[in-house]
Target: Acetoin utilization deacetylase AcuC
Amino acid sequence: MLTVVFHEGYLRRYPTGAVETPARARAVISKLKNHYPVVTPDPARKEDVLRAHEPEHLVRVQLEGMDVLEAAFLAAGGALCAARLALSGRTAFAAIRPPGHHAGRNRYGGFCFFNNMAVAIRSLLETGAVQSAAVVDIDMHRGDGTAEILGGDPRVQLVDMTLADGAQFVDRLMTRLALLPDVDVIGVSAGFDLHVQDWGNLLTNRDYHRIGRALGETARRKARGRLFALLEGGYTAHELGKAVLAFCRGLEGKEFPGAPPEGRP
Ligand SMILES: [Zn+2]
Model:
C-alpha cells in the first residue's frame, strides 16, 4: 500500500508567493489520510542539504527568516523520508511544501528554497543506497533547479515533460517512460498545475490517474517497484486533493477513485 509522508509543519505560514498557501497541503492531506497510512518525517540535516546546495545558499535562505529556513529543512526531510520508504519497498507520496524543483545549487525562486528532489536523490547516491535513479517531472514548469543540480550526473536519468503540449501529454510521457533504462529508484516531481482548473488548464483527474498508473507500472518493471513522489506545484486547493488521490490510486495500479471495482458493470 502507498504511504503518505506529512508533517503538521507543512501547514505553517511563512513568507512566500501569495498562491503557495498552507491550504494546498491541507487539501492533499485531508484527502489522502482517509486512504493511506501517514508517516511523520524529521527535518533534513544540514549535511543532507549540502549534498545538493552550496553553503552560501543555506546562508541566503536563512536571511529569508527562520520560518522559511525551518520550512525548507522540513520539506527536504519529507523528501528524504519518502525516498527511504521507496527503498524499503513502500511507494510514497510526500505532501510537502515548500516545493523544490526550481531551486538550483546556489539560487532559489518560484516558491522553492531547497531542491527537495535533488537532496533526496543525491543522498541515496552518495550513501551508496542506490547506484542509479530516474527523476520524472510532471509539473507545468520545467524543473530547472533539478536539471542544474542533477543534469550532469551520468547516474541520473531526467524526464522533463514541460515541452509536451495539449492532449498528447500523457502519450508523450508514456513514450518517454518506455525509453527509460532500468534504474534503482524513480523519483517523481509531482506538480499538479497542469490541471484543467489550475494554471495549465490541460489535465483532468482521470489524466492524473493514467499518469500515476504509467509511472507505477514503469517502477514495477524497471525499478523493482521503488518509487516516491514529491508535491511540487498545484495551486487550486479545492481540486488539488482530488487530483493527488487519483494520481496515488494510479501509482498503486488501482481504479480511479469512485469508479466501480474492475470486473463489475
Ligand atoms: Zn509549476
